[in-house]
Design brief:
Blueprint (H helix, E strand, L loop, with lengths): L1 E2 L2 E2 L2 E6 L7 E5 L13 E5 L18 E6 L9 E10 L11 E5 L6 E6 L5 E8 L11 E2 L11 H5 L1 E3 L13 E6 L6 E8 L8 E7 L2 E2 L4 E2 L4 E8 L6 E9 L11 E2 L1 E7 L11 E7 L6 E2 L3 E9 L4 E6 L10 E2 L6 E5 L5 E10 L8 E7 L7
Parallel strand pairs: 7-8, 23-29
Antiparallel strand pairs: 1-2, 1-5, 3-4, 5-6, 7-21, 9-10, 10-13, 11-12, 12-20, 13-19, 14-18, 14-21, 15-16, 15-17, 15-19, 22-24, 24-27, 25-26, 25-28, 28-29
Amino acid sequence: MKESGSKVFVKNITISEADAKKLVFEIQDGSISSYDKRLPLTLDYVKPTTGGLKSIYDVYTESFDSFRVINMNGNFTNLYAQYLINLQNDISEDPLDLTWNNWKYKNDSVNTLDLRDTYGRITGIKAESVLVPGKIYLGGSYNDGKPVYENVDILVQKAGWYVTSGDANITENKVGKLNFTNLDNTRKYTFRVYGSRFAGNHCSTLRLKVNDKYTTFYYQGKGAGSIVVEDVSPIKSIIEMVFISNKTEGDLINKGSAGVSWIEVDEHMSGSDPGIHDVFIKSAGLKDTPEGSTTTRDVLVHVSTFGESDAYRVCESSTDINTLPWVPTEVGVFDFHYTISASFGEKTILVQVRNKYTESNVKEFKCTYLDPHVPT
């Protein structure tokens, strides 16, 4: 185990009694940083000559290095994923850290973003800026924010989006709004909004409404600050985030604009969610040909899997399967059409499946393409 490249002493490793797919690492108390430091935690493993880590599929784990894991140190039980959204303007440079979802501001148009979590998984969640001219819109972007957070990239802190200001204190006649869609209704989401803009002497306050939950305090748009709304449940797979920005109390003429630099979204599983989304091919072969031979090129490849899949790819050993596109299929379908190469003889077939969370192992099997004109 390593944190930011520094080794962490592991005292013991056991298999979780509650979930045989999980390993429990026992480490010295205080030997890793708290979750909010957002330091990368990775695992390395070297497969021994004999024995080693064996999965519930009766397969030994191969060697790997720099495998990033979720740090749940602290009050983040059942954390499934985190999404980092970097709000930018047209001239903003992307940070080197690829865990950020970089989102360019678009003037007077609906703007959507496919979110990728900090471990590179694309789960189908989307963010969309809502536009209703004169009432619901985000009022521009900037690139002159002042960095104040030690552990956040300067490029992230410099850029951001202005928040539309209402005409009087604590009103919602003009607001900015983002919708998060394709969320899991069984889960809860925590939103953290950060601002780092210094915009002069007269600035607006800012608060959030996420679905029907309001923040209980404001922060001044001219300075650094953050707002948190916790444990929000989606309604029909959607969460609405409304930015409410108003003139500073007592100042109804001169004002600046509140600014938002980035947003962090935490996705938490419920206690009843097993959190197992793996898919694993246990066996594969040609359908209805127990001898593994065929006299036709068009065949059905049958797989037996643990877990669900919604796409597949098949090839022969002469092709790199990682270069092939995925073919969509229905969940619960285990027979895939494939055309084998024209030459007669033995073939090595490779097959792989995936779902929206993960890709399976690559399973190979052999079959023989026989000349139909030659008696067997």
